[in-house]
Amino acid sequence: MTTEQPTEEKNFYYKIFLAVVAVAVLDIAYLLYRSMSSEISFYFFSLSEKTIFIILSLIAMPINYALIALTTLFIKKTNRNLYISAAVIGITTLFIIHTNTAAANYNYDQEQIIDSMNLEYFKWEENNNAPLGYPIDVYSGGLKLRGGGSVGLSLGTSSGRRGWGSYGAGMTSGRKSLPDSLDITWLSYAEDTFYHINCAIDYERMLHLFQEGYDEKDAGGNIRHETYNTIIVGYAPGGVVVVWVFGSSKQVEVGRYQGQKTTIDQQEIDHLDYPKKLFFQQAYRDDKMNNQHIVPTKVREANKNKPIPYGLWDNYRVKYLWRPVFKQNKFDDSTFSMISARLEMFNGEIEELFDEGLQQKVFTAKAIPDGFNIIWRDKNGEVHSGTVDFDEKTAFEAFNEIYKNDKDGEAELIISVNVPNTFITVMLKSRDKEVSLNNNAKVKVFKTSQKFN
Question: What residue intervals traverse the membrane (predicted)?
Fold first, then answer.
């Protein structure tokens, strides 16, 4: 025997439907009234955010119906309770719409401000760097961002143990505009001197580099287009400041800037808290220079009683026209197959080569190489990796010899692997002269089990 649902209960659920429709009409009316200008792009089309919110309001109708219907399972089915439930749903949806549209409008307004200022946001973090043996600490200041705001550079002692221009750890890594100036005061422990710099930096060059990015290739043979993710500020003796942009496969110098010696007012020192107050205690400064984790004992002993080599880091920046050439033995064995090469220069720049990039036809201006890593496949299909770290004196003497009569001349850096795949020789060769760079170089060659496509 079947029983028909009472007419009164059917009418109640019909009233729920009418209440849901009323909520949707109210939401859509509010959306039509509210000013919204931004759009969201999909694969083949784009819609205004207002249209998307209206569509979502319609999609929400059955959800609202279900919510009110479920509520009536726990309360008495009266018109009063229905109106209260509908009002709660209506107020909640209006609140959600209001807060989301307000956020969307704010983001749109911010984007318009950025566009009007010709700004772009990128995800990057800040780093400090110093030459090995010449540690520094930033006392105050940092990078001033285009459009307002700044990023502080008080990141702890920079020792340079990874080399001039190397990256370290930053504090911020979110999206932000790029810097257009420096305002930094730092302590050079080796000189026992404070420096200050307040100057513009080459924003347009940095912006171009971030926009252009670079390609990199993984072991699977996949090529990805990446951009830089770190801005490094390096501090060398004499107030020299160099700014680089760094990515996993490339590092490029943005510019070189000059700081001036400065003193900190005693009244300011008296009001400092720790740890910055330690910067003005001689014992603390001496401990920094004597800490083998900051200045290795070998480096400290090598620098002992020697003058600071002012100007050295500017010499690192001198560039010559040269290109790398990779081969196996002097007969250039055709079974030798290069996979990739990573070149690191004394000026802190890094370049990673693969595919066509390994066959450079053009001589480009590059600083003197500090070293490199290459990966190749031999005639048996086995993969080898080799690293060469040049002796600084040998490398500079070689380049000075090749270019002494023609600073604008061209040369090839010939990197040759021997037939047993156990050693690498390096020659710098011009039209009429060649010089070896192997003297005192550190050469490591080994097989690798890593697979490359």
Answer: 12-32, 52-75, 82-99
Pairing mode of beta strands 369-377, 383-389: antiparallel
pLDDT tens per residue, range 284-318: 999 999 999 999 999 999 999 999 999 999 999 99
Residue range of the domain that includes 189: 122-312
- Whether 209 and 153 have beta carbons less than 8 Å apart is answered as no
**CB-based contacts of 39: which residues, under 8 Å, 6+ apart?**
46, 47, 48, 49
Residue 167 neighbours by CB distance under 10 Å: 20
Q: β-strand 337-345 against 136-145: which pairing, if any?
A: unpaired
| Statement: residue 104 has pLDDT above 60 | yes
For residues 184 and 302, membership in a common domain is answered with yes
Are both 283 and 426 inside the same structural domain? no
Phi and psi angles of residue 3, each rounded to the nearest 5 degrees, phi first = -120, 135
Query: Which one, of 40, 207, 200, lies nearest residue 117 by Cα?
Result: 207
Q: At what angle do helices 7-33 and 79-116 cross, to 10 degrees?
A: 20
Provide the whole-model pTM.
0.74
Closest C-alpha to 213, from 224, 225, 203, 223: 225
- Placement of tokens 């929400």 in the chain: 60
CB of 334 within 8 A of CB of 356?
A: no
Q: pLDDT (tens digit, 9 = 90+) per residue, 38-59?
A: 666 655 566 787 888 888 888 8
Cβ atoms within 10 Å of 33's Cβ, excluding its own: 7
Are 13 and 156 in the same domain?
no
**SS3 call for 93:** helix
* Candidate ranges 59-73, 166-180, 324-338, 348-362; pick with highest mean pLDDT: 348-362
